[in-house]
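Recap from last week: sequence in, structure out.
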Amino acid sequence: MLATRENLVPDVAFADVAGRTVLVRADLNVPMLGGRITDNTRISRFAPAVATLVSRGARVVVMTHLGRPAAEYNPIFSTRPVAEVLSAALQCDVRFVPDCVGNAAERSVGALPPGGVALLENLRFHKGEIDNNLAFARRLSILGDIYVNDAFSCSHRAHASTHAIAGLMPACAGPSLLAEIAALQKALDAAHRPVTAIVGGAKVSTKIEILKNLVGKVDTLVIGGGMANTFLFARGLSVGASLCEKNAAATVREIEAAAQKSGCRILLPRDVVVSRRFVANEACETVLVDAISDDVMALDIGDASRREIGEALRQSRTVLWNGPLGAFEMPPYGDGTFSVARITAGLTRRGALRSVAGGGDTVAALITAGVDQDLTYVSTAGGAFLDWLEGRPLPGIEALKSSQHQLKGDVTWLG
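Predicted structure tokens:
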């Protein structure tokens, strides 16, 4: 990345926030059941950023979305419970503001004492948020002196609180967003080579752009899951009753040609675990990929494939992982994914490998394997992570780079 202002992101750590109101966009879209938060991981991870700003003399106003409330008030999606859990995490009172814009919100935020913290009501109760409406963004901007985007996971969407607002006030990145950018850059754009990417999941069609981007940047590309069946089919092999997108064969051949041109090795399964029915603990067997009969479906990688992937990882310095290698949610077809996860974790613990993983199914598989804390970085960003893998600019990040407003203080521009 070129070291120019246009290509870099300003870091709030170097901004003078003392005596100022900092408006922070977080992603506190936590799972709820019956009005109670069932997993407060995102809140606990975000709390230290708030505590740091408070310790530097700022008033902090937090804004987030929660669920998909169809642009109207719905008590099921109120952020009030989030304010309560954030209060506990910070061990201080967090004022809940029952709207995110308007006179009541302005009065409540305006009355915050020095070092005070407030959490606004759900941004998505207003249509202007999703529409990236400039007037709505202006109403948000009134609430603060400095805008901070600390929600990488929301930065792939051009919404008012992630995009339009950055052009209206001094704007910079928060620690979580910068940590995500740094981890992803070290996994691909500035990686220690050799680099291996593991891409799995059900369908090639959902990851075509990811594959096209990766074959030009990594040394080895491991293909697993249902996607591998389509690659095998494109090479002329029968995949029996397995999930396979036969109409994507031509696209797969284009991806393989691009990989060959760039010197990227594509690693497909050598053997697979097959069964006649997709049922938990059904009778299954391991066969070579050229011996899949018409009445069975491939549901996991076999031992030989696991060993070959393990060897590729041992020869690598960096691994980037998105997508499981089999139907991990149904036993015993998670064994391949879990085995590779444990190899990755072991190499990471020994300092032999930098490992970055992301995507909902990938994170779930790592948690099931008990190694989610052992990788270098595990991203929960979802759509933003996938867009980054495709090489797409993220609107929320681009807005920070192009902000024309000056921050008070000695601002350092970080890549």
